[in-house]
Amino acid sequence: MIPEALLLFDDIVVGSVLTSPEPYEITAEEIKEVASRWDPMPFHLDDGAGAASHFGGLVASGAHTIAASIRLGALEEPRTAAIAGLGIDELRFLAPVRPGDRLSQTTEIVETRPSSSRADAGVVRARRSLRNQDGVEVMAYVVTWMVARAVEG
After folding, report:
1. What is the model's pLDDT at position 152?
2. Is there a contact between 138 and 94 (Cβ–Cβ < 8 Å)?
3. What confidence score (pLDDT) does residue 5 get?
4. Structural domain tally of the chain?
5. Quick one: pLDDT band at residue 80, thresholds 50, 70, 90?
6. Residue 57: inside a domain, yes or no?
7. Which DSSP string do the residues of 50-65 spell out, in sequence order?
């Protein structure tokens, strides 16, 4: 059973925008923790190495930025009755993400189509934009996911 508060596939309209209700703050500690496990580049791990790099300071890895975006996507409003992520296309890292950045996200629906393999689902594609507290777009991509449909009967 799908909670009534979730947006079903047939209620999703091309051109509508989903938004993250609260920004996600990136901390230096989190940058270092994520990097130590998944992307151990010096400019992600050490303040001095970050300062000496072309970034001019500690920066989050792309993997960290994607993870923050996925977290924000799970909280976007209105929430959809998501079943599964299907893909990310046209991923672009546009500006560095730094300690103290507060990231917010918008997801604009660009396409919907019924699933060809599941009568109880549809496929949604959207352009997603992640911005920092200054409105600078730090990452953008096209996301595709499967959303539940109302099942008659």
Report:
1. 67
2. yes
3. 78
4. 1
5. very high
6. yes
7. HHHSTTSS----HHHH
Type and span of the H or E element at 42 = helix 42-45
DSSP lists the bridge partners of residue 124 as 112, 145
- Note whether residue 114 is domain-resident: yes
pLDDT for the residue 125: 98
Domain with 65 in it: 9-148
Distances (CA, A) of 151 to 28, 119, 120: 46, 8, 6
User: What distance in Å separates the CA atoms of residue 149 and residue 127, rounded to the nearest whole number?
Assistant: 21
Sorting pLDDT into bands at 50, 70 and 90, what band is 116?
very high
Beta-carbon count within 10 A of 81 CB: 20
pTM of the model: 0.91
pLDDT at 75 over 70: yes
Give dist(CA 98, CA 115) in Å, integer.
Answer: 39
Contact assessment for residue 25 and residue 102, using Cβ atoms and an 8 Å cutoff: yes
72 vs 137: CA distance, rounded Å: 15
Are the C-beta atoms of residues 140 and 104 closer than 8 Å to each other? no
Is 32 inside a domain boundary?
Answer: yes
Tokens at 21, concatenated? 């209700």
pLDDT, greater one: 77 or 3: 77
Domain presence at residue 153:
no
